[in-house]
Amino acid sequence: MIRRFLIVIFLFLIKGVTIFAQSDLESKSQFSFIADPDQHFAFDNFINPEWKYRYIKYQENKIIPSFKFVNKDESDVVLIKTSRKNTDVRLLKLFVNDEIEMDVSNFAFNDSLLFVKLPPKSEGYKLMVYWKRKKVAQLNVDVHYRVYENITIVPLCQFNLNENQIQTELNRAFDKVNYNFNVSLAPVFVSKVFDGKTVFSNPNASHLQYTGQMRLLRDLYFKSNPKRNKKSIYIFIVNGFKDSLLPSFMVNNKSVGFIKNNQFVYHFSRELVRTLGYGLGGLEPVWLNNGPEKGTTLNVMDSTNITNFTFFQWEKIHKLVNYYSYYDNEENVKTNNGTVAYYFWEEDVNGNIVLSDNNPISSIRRPYKFNYLSYRFKVKYFLLRPFFKIGNYYVSILDGVLLTLAVFVLWFTRMKLKRFWLAKKLRFHFFRRFIFFLIICFVSFQVYENYWVTNRLLFYFKHIGGELEELHSLPYSVAKKELLTNQKLLHEEVPSVCSEILILKKGVWDIKKRGKVLYFDVSKENDLYSVRFSSSEDSIKLGTLGYQNIAHRHYIVFNFKDQENSIKKQIVYTHSGVEITSKFKNEDKPKRILLFVNGYRPTSIGQTFEENFSDIKVNGIEHPNSSNYIYDFDRFDYWTPWNQINLLFQKRINPSNTYYADGHFSVKTSNYESLLNFTSVSSLYPKRCVDSSNHTCYKIQDATWKQFLMNQSKTINQIKLRSNIKGYNYRKYKGRIAGKNLLQILNESPGLSKNDTLFIVAHSMGFAYSEGIVAELRGKINFGGYYILAPENAKAGKVKTDEWKQIWQYGSNFDQINPDAPCLQDGIAPQYKVPGLPDSNRVFIPEKLYKSKGYFDSHFIGDYTWIFNIPKAEKGAVVNR
Asked: 770 vs 552, 581, 763, CA distance in Å?
């Protein structure tokens, strides 16, 4: 009886809770925000169920908010819709950020709609709707400045549309998200390569890379128009693509686009709007990633001609405002540095260089610099000749023979053992299988050893100098490309600075490794020059100027001789062909050099660090390791897009020159050692706690093998990763190569950098890379400021504080007294102190920046602008120079 009574009570309670929940949901669903037909700016709310995961994270008290875009200090209108009949407005309350109550006593519902005029604000806010003291709806109001952009349209064919018409249509679409465009139409661009009939090859559907044609067109146009507006988006009008259905293409978050010619202004403008969606914000078609079906939404990135924006889209296009990047992340942008300089020239039978237009310097071709030497294997033995390459290893016929032999030995051993077990009638199945497993492991190891040994033997046949059969009789224009692409010609990275010269003589190219400085003897007779290569050295000797010094970069020295074979004049050129003879006489003025060293570059165009790594989890790919070059601009868009943090450093340090080094390397060189380890930890690691005064993040489901033994463990143990010393040292070694390249740039004449002062800003993996650069430059330049932001594997390094005028480490508090809660820690790179750095030289993310902390956020470079809010007298301040 008691049992039956308890069951009845239990069912009653269940029903009561259900009724209460349903009534509560009913009350919440009876009110909602909708767009006003007369609104000026964009409105967005949750409609498409496929996008629920995007909106659900903004849910508060089981209410998914709507979103409204407004201009700074400007008002707009919105409607509140209710399904209730005879609504008493006195029971309705509107609050701004739950603090300021809006007066709605004079408002009345008309056809179940309440007209609301939003208050003008300079920052975003939340508008809350309460009915009978219960929160029933919420509007997140997003405030942005108005953005002005220039667009230059460059037609390759006849283009009859008027720029004013295009501008009007474009601004009509983008005005709702506060974008205003100034469109200018350039003259038809015609070159030897491209004209109005050129059909472009199909680009990659991922919108991550330009095709070779697109890159060439861009470079040709920019070279032909050096005075172009460098703060403009460029749209090339082309005849079409091989895929006749492809209307346009633009790489995500870049400033160069290509659109198929269209003579109808409305259709062309709509296509331009969609194309700019890719370029301005990295937007994607709505139907990708399990989105709504194509043609079913009113979104700007659907196939329809409607231009509605979601909150997530307008946030993205306002992230990279007024930032212009014309290179995709995959292309090899030419730099003027590299440890190995390549030279090509042709000689006659007497050893004299064949001159073009009687010009010595232009007859010595200088197509590129790289960080590697070119060579080939000259193998006499057929069995050792490589025919395939796996990673950095070569496979030869001998490898195949040894593999076959190993398999035979394995089969023979198994057969003999099986007969032995049967003859002895032994039934120890586990023991038998264990023995056989050990044999397999031994044979596998032997196969690897054979593979390794054959590769070591192969390198004895490495042929750096001599005739190159692979380039036989090829003209220079072909030979310079073949040297880089021919599979039989190999490349070896070298840390030393040297030259590689290729000489065409009697129809055969000959390759030689030489020093940094190439000397040529030049004589003149009847106004005709005669040039002959004389020698190469690692020092530059200018007897006519009384100058001699060790060279840190590549030079070409012409020794002009008279009839008595005496040197009467010397002219010095750089590898790029710039004469710098006079600079060996100039006064060495001190310069301030600022170097930015970036960390890991995810294969993603996400606007936050979390979005980037979310894409990595899906793509499972990485960019190639750094090429160890130095750039004079933010080549990989690592710093500028995020609040232009590089410009903030430049403003404080006031450098004479600013350079960028790429410290990106695979995750396997980090403490995580693999993307799999990283994704397993990051996916389970707790988000930032909602209540900063009550952290519930100290325990977590273990992401390692321990999860099979225990349900939970300490959260902080998930990121107490063992230091990857090998990975750190590898990055540091590569940094030394970049250091040599920077030294080349700074030393136009030898020893010039000794009077300069270097400032380094390093982030994440860039710390280890910076340490390699510092090791290479030590004693060759003065050290000023060293700003280490969220270093990865900091405890593997070591700094010498006495050689820097200012040095700080910024990041989360991981290993000091009163550390940050686990959910606020930098999960990408747990912040240990850099050895050699005093505790007083560490600066932690301020407590007031609670929303800028977390597994991803504490590491994100865009959140480190707080550094510039540190008062001048306090520790961590970047001193004005």
From this structure: 19, 32, 9
| Pairing assessment for the beta strands 528-537 and 517-525 based on DSSP bridges | antiparallel
- Whether 768 and 625 have beta carbons less than 8 Å apart is answered as no
Q: Residue 66 and residue 140: Cα distance in Å, rounded?
A: 6
DSSP notation for 214-264: HHHHHHHHHHH-TTS-SSSEEEEEESEESSTT--EEE-TT-SEEEEE----
pLDDT digit string, tens, across residues 50-82: 998 889 888 888 899 999 999 999 999 999 988
How many residues are there in the chain?
881
Could you state, in order of their start, the residue ranges of all structural domains in the chain? 25-144, 147-317, 340-371+494-584, 382-460, 592-869
How many Cβ atoms sit within 10 Å of the Cβ of residue 513? Answer: 16
From CA 350, how far away is CA 361, in angstroms rounded?
Answer: 19
Within the chain, what is the greatest distance between any pair of CA atoms?
128
CA–CA distances in Å: residue 320 to residues 497, 549, 603, 637:
38, 47, 18, 10
Superfamily (CATH H level) for 25-144: Immunoglobulins (2.60.40.10)
Positions of E strands within 462-497:
462-463, 466-467, 489-493
Give dist(CA 487, CA 480) in Å, integer. Answer: 14
pLDDT tens across 542-577, in order?
999 889 999 989 999 999 998 888 999 999 999 999
Query: CB of 860 within 8 A of CB of 813?
Result: no
Cα atoms found within 13 Å of the Cα of residue 530, Cβ hemisphere only: 12
Q: Tell me which H or E stretch contains 102.
A: strand 100-102
What is the distance between the alpha carbons of residues 281 and 320, in angstroms, rounded to a whole number? 7
Residues pairing with 344 in the sheet: 365, 502
| Residue 212 contacts residue 219 (beta carbons within 8 Å) | no
Q: Provide the CATH number for the domain formed by 147-317 in this structure.
A: 3.40.390.10
Given a contact cutoff of 8 angstroms between Cβ atoms, the answer to whether 674 and 667 are in contact is yes
Alpha-carbon torsion 667, 673, 677, 683, what sign?
negative
Q: Is 448 helix (H, G, I), strand (E, B) or coil?
A: helix
Q: pTM for this structure?
A: 0.76
Q: Which amino acid is at 172?
A: R
Q: Which residue has the tokens 């403003």?
A: 651
